[in-house]
Design a protein that fits this description.
It contains nine helices and twelve strands. The chain is of the alpha/beta class. It has two domains: 170 residues, P-loop containing nucleotide triphosphate hydrolases (Rossmann fold); 67 residues. The strands form three sheets. A six-stranded mixed beta sheet has the order 8-9-10-3-11-12, sandwiched between helices. Strands 2-1-4-5 form a four-stranded antiparallel beta sheet, covered by helices on one side. Strands 6-7 form a two-stranded antiparallel ribbon. The longest helix has 15 residues. The radius of gyration is 19 Å and the shape is globular. It binds adenosine-5'-diphosphate and magnesium ion (MG). The site of magnesium ion has 3 residues, from helix 1.
Length: 259
Amino acid sequence: MLTRVNALGTISISNVSKRYGTFQALNNVNLAIPAGSVTVIIGPSGSGKSTLLRTINHLERVDQGLIKIDDEYIGYRQKGDKLYELKEKAILKQRTQVGYVFQSFNLFPHLTALENVAEAPIAHKQLSRKAAHAQALTLLEQVGLKHKADAWSRHLSGGQQQRVAIARALALRPKVLLFDEPTSALDPELVGEVLNVIEQLARSGKTLVIVTHEIAFARKIADQVVFMVEGEIVEQGPVEQVLDAPQHSRTRQFLAQVL
Ligand code: ADP
Ligand code: MG
C-alpha cells in the first residue's frame, strides 16, 4: 500500500496586498510558515496584523497575491495552470482547515461550554451529535476545563471563556490555528492560563500564527517573529534575530515601548 506523505499546515503567503478604499492595509507581504511551526506577529496598532490573519482564513479577500496552505490556494481551486475563484460553500469548507481565536472569545452565551465546542463539527456534519460531544469533552479536558463542561459560557471567567474558544477552534481539527491577540481582553491574572494552553498546543505539531504583544511569551515559543509596520513586514526571523538583535530602528523603537 502506498502511504501518502502529508505536510500538514505549511502556509505560503506570496505578494499579498489589500486595500480598504484608498488605504493600503497590506503591501506586498511575503511570508513562509513551515508546517508545525509557531510564528508570532508583532507590530503597532493599525499595522495590518489582523488583516493578514484574516486573509489566511479568507475572512478578507486579497486584492493581489496568493495564499496557499499545503497544496491548496485560499479562495481558489486550481485546474491545470488556471485558478478559479471558489464559491461561498467551498470557501466555508476550506475555512474549516483553519481555526481562529479572537481577542473577544465570541462564544455563544446561550450555550454551555460543551455545546460551544461541539457545535461546529455537528453543523459541518463532520461528527454525529454523540461523537461531537465526546470529542468536546476531550478537548475541554485538554484546556483544563472538563469540570466546566455544563457551565453556561457567560458564567465563565474571561480566561476560561478563551480556553473554551481554543477548544472550539480545535474541534474541526484544523491544520492551522490563528490567534488574534488572544489575551488582550483579559485581566492580567488570567493571561497565564491562556498562554499555558497555547504553549501546550505549540508542542502538538499544529501550525500556529499568533498576533500578540506578550513579548516574553513570544520569546519562549516562537520559531519565527514577524514585525509589521504600515502593512509591510519590516523584519522577520528567529527570536535571537528580531527580538535580541533587531536590524531596523522601527523594530527597536517598538520593542522599547512594549518591553
Ligand atoms: P492591526 O491588527 O495591526 O492593529 P488591522 O489589520 O486591524 O491592524 O488594520 C490595519 C488598518 O486597516 C487600520 O488602519 C484599520 O483602520 C484599517 N482597516 C481594517 N479593517 C478595515 C475595514 N474593514 N475597513 C476599512 N479599514 C479597515
Ligand atoms: Mg488587530
